[in-house]
Amino acid sequence: SIPALVKDLWIARISAVCLVIGTFGVGLAPTAALMVIGMVVSAFGFGYGPAMRSLLTATVGSDQVAMLYGMMGLLQNTGLIIAGPLIAVEFRVGLEWGGFWVGLPFLAAGCLCSVAAVIISVVDVVDVCKRTSAS
Predict the structure, then answer these.
(1) How far apart are CA 111 and CA 88, in angstroms?
(2) Of 55, 58, 77, 131, which residue is the least packed, with the fewest Cβ within 10 Å?
């Protein structure tokens, strides 16, 4: 009885929270066992991408889906190109500083995931449903 868009929005929100908790858990883990637990929690966050694709596809017109997917692919690949060297630098810096800072790349990723989680939490379910019913 719950609309599909509402379900997708909640899946995206829960997945984003799992990504935040998991990446910070990996970055702050003092032992290997806690790091593995953080990785497992982070794995529950991989539903974020498909749920967001579903939400975005539902909110655009059918004639704009191809352009939406093209732009999403372009932005995703640009992010991967930029993220690779940045993560390598963060890892090198974290190793130089030692101790707690070895998890620096995961802490940075946790901060970025936190921004995404805040953004997806601000979107109201009613706004998404109104936008799709109006088009």
Answers:
(1) 17
(2) 77
